[in-house]
Write a structure and sequence with these properties.
globular; Nucleotide-diphossugar_trans; Spore Coat Polysaccharide Biosynthesis Protein SpsA, Chain A; alpha/beta; transferase; 2 domains; Alpha_mannosyltransferase; binds 2-acetamido-2-deoxy-beta-D-glucopyranose; 15% strand; 40% helix; single chain
């Protein structure tokens, strides 16, 4: 990117100018009176009024309220750090494919590969009990956010930065108007051109999380997976659609906040391909009954809908599981299965709190293409929760039915709504490098569409979302890359779209 030409002092100067009250969208009063009955920063009547001074994500992060809340949290996490050794997978134990996708869900036992002695279990339980008390107490009512605001939040630190512009353009192409906060890990990720010019034009704003964390540094530095919960917690919005940097909707997501199942639950999660591979120990330590394996898939967590007013307590528990994730809770929740990381921390937190939430039942499906008789995966599709809700309402599925029954029934699944390019990433900085899958040619010597034949894409999404993707890739390349790369992207797009 041209970013190399711009110097650090200039970047810092631009950052000062970002502190402007711009990205604020008040909600219509009628839709929120029922959804803010939970805890909110003001509580009571005042929560129905607009904040006196609408502020940006940057100003929110730099406000004394947010900084003192973080200091409170940091001190509590430090105080509750369990004095135990990091949990390792046993050398001889491994979660198998059968554990992740058992033939018969109902009879399959939970894999149990981690052993902890009684002292360790007691130490973990004591710390967890204390965190639960803290999260249920004052902390949840003091979680700072701008009451009655909605927005989209993403994390784009490090190598994820190159994807976020394409994802944002795809988001805007659906007609979405909600403001976007892009969380960067540190100032090293801050690109003056993208953060200063490109994103503001897309009603998006870069926010640097280390600005907050450095005011009260955590005991250990954070890793990539841990950033997500921080981004949700410390974004300015009350209601958040979280998207991984490589995920975007194919339809306007703004109305998801006004429809079921979000309206009645305030938390919606999307499924992974696999079932839970959590160790039985996690339920013992956190004192909840293990749900049947068939109850739901493990969660994918690249896409989440949260109302922080209704879910402050479980979000704080999710922070705890992520803060102690790499050493303790990630292994306990996944035991080394595919995608070990933050993915099940949000669902587990909601389970422990007994919070209401909705997990999308329509299975995640793969996105990709056949090329030379071989399947190439690019990413995945996640379903429309509102349509799924309506299908269930009209088909009157028995209340007792589980995910397993749903798969076996003839029930229609909802249309795909989100695209998550977790395999071949549309990273504008790398996409034109030699060896990029986009340049693959088929037996006929032609370039090929990445998401399959046009008619199938239209059937899935109602329009040719791949055509839009190429349009946005061209705009992005021509804005951020060299003239030569701009021309190469145009040629590539023309070649790919030449064959329907
Ligand atoms: C379908 O709706 C019923 C009744 O509203 C509810 O109890 C049930 O859990 C729903 N099923 C799914 C799969 O959402
Ligand atoms: C597909 O087959 C053609 C012809 O055999 C070959 O030139 C091309 O490299 C193959 N593509 C991939 C991605 O393997």
């Amino acid at each position: 990117m041209r970013r190399a030409l711009l110097t650090l002092p200039f970047a810092l100067l631009l950052l000062l100018f970002l502190d402007q009250p711009s990205h604020y969208f008040p909600l219509p009063a009628t839709t929120t009176t029922s959804s803010t009955t939970g805890s909110s920063s003001d509580g009571g009547l005042s929560s129905f009024f607009r904040p006196a001074r609408p502020i940006s994500g940057h100003a929110h992060l730099h406000s004394p309220t947010v900084q003192s809340f973080w200091r409170l949290l940091r001190d509590e996490l430090f105080r509750l750090t369990p004095a135990v050794d990091p949990i390792h997978q046993p050398d001889d134990g491994k979660v198998t494919g059968e554990d992740q996708a058992p033939e018969n869900l109902d009879n399959h036992p939970r894999p149990s590969l981690i052993y902890l002695d009684e002292i360790t279990k007691t130490t973990l339980r004591t710390s967890h009990d204390a965190m639960l008390k803290f999260a249920r107490g004052q902390a949840s009512s003091e979680l700072p956010f701008q009451v009655r605001t909605r927005g989209i939040v993403t994390t784009a630190g490090g190598s994820y930065f190159g994807m976020v512009v394409v994802s944002l353009r795809m988001l805007r192409s659906t007609g979405s108007k909600l403001p976007v906060t892009v969380f960067l890990d540190t100032h090293k990720d801050y690109d003056p051109l993208v953060c200063g010019e490109v994103l503001p034009d897309l009603n998006a704003e870069c926010v640097v999380l280390s600005d907050l964390l450095d005011t009260a540094p955590p005991s250990t530095p954070l890793l990539r997976y841990q950033y997500k919960v921080f981004a949700i917690l410390f974004s300015p919005f009350q209601e958040v659609l979280f998207l991984d940097a490589d995920a975007f909707p194919a339809h306007n997501p703004d109305q998801l906040f006004d429809t079921q199942p979000y309206k009645s639950t305030g938390l919606v999660t999307w499924p992974d391909f696999w079932v839970s591979t959590a160790s039985p120990l996690i339920f013992d330590i956190t004192r909840v009954k293990a749900p049947p394996l068939a109850a739901r898939k493990s969660s994918e967590a690249g896409i989440l809908l949260y109302d922080k007013a209704r879910h402050a307590t479980d979000l704080l528990m999710a922070l705890y599981y992520n803060f102690f994730g790499p050493d303790l809770y990630y292994p306990l929740l996944a035991q080394g299965a595919a995608g070990e990381g933050d993915k099940d921390t949000f669902l587990h937190a909601a389970t422990v709190i007994g919070a209401e939430w909705y997990d999308v039942k329509s299975p995640v499906t793969v996105m990709g293409r056949w090329l030379n008789d071989t399947w190439h995966s690019f990413g995945m599709k996640q379903a429309d929760p509102a349509e799924e809700w309506n299908i269930n309402e009209t088909s009157k599925l028995d209340p007792g039915k589980t995910l397993n029954d749903l798969h076996q029934s003839t029930l229609k699944t909802a249309r795909p709504f989100f695209i998550h390019n977790n395999i071949v990433k549309f990273d504008i900085e790398r996409i034109l490098e030699p060896g990029s899958a986009l340049f693959d040619i088929n037996e006929a010597g032609h370039l090929q569409r990445v998401w399959g034949p046009q008619q199938d894409v239209i059937q899935d999404f109602g329009y040719d979302v791949e055509q839009v993707l190429w349009t946005e890739l061209i705009v992005t390349a021509c804005q951020l890359m060299t003239m030569r790369d701009c021309r190469r992207m145009k040629d590539l797009a023309a070649g790919v779209l030449a064959v329907p």
